[in-house]
Amino acid sequence: MGFENVTAFEGDTMRQGSLEIIRVEGIHGSNPETVRKMGTVSGFIVRCENEKTVYIAGDTVFYDGVVRNIETYRPEVILVNACGATTPAGRLIMNPEEAQQVCLCAPDALVTATHLDSVNHATVTRRDVRKFKEEKGLKQLLIPEDGECIRL
Asked: Which end of the chain is more exposed for a tag (fewer CB within 10 A), N or C?
């Protein structure tokens, strides 16, 4: 993709100039069996001077660790994988109700629902999330189209 300066992420924090990326925990499953099978997952906090703080929640369900990350880092932009992807062992990532919980925990942040219409084990479509957003009045929840760029 044309990147010329690539650095391996080792440890919990990486810095490059004024850019800081912090690895945070996630839970990839809605029950202990699924979590054990899926293993360790990470989200990331991205901070840079004169830019908004971004929380990439990653492949996680909503749980107290997500709340801690929001309270600790106060992100202004949060990306959540919100398609409710599931396996026979259980749900793997957030669904619209959990995206709503993120919105409630971070009322001033823009929350972007991702992973929509992109994985075959999803239980929720982009259309479903849009309907949920309208029903709940979640103005801060963004639902981009594939390839759409959102400029803040």
From this structure: N
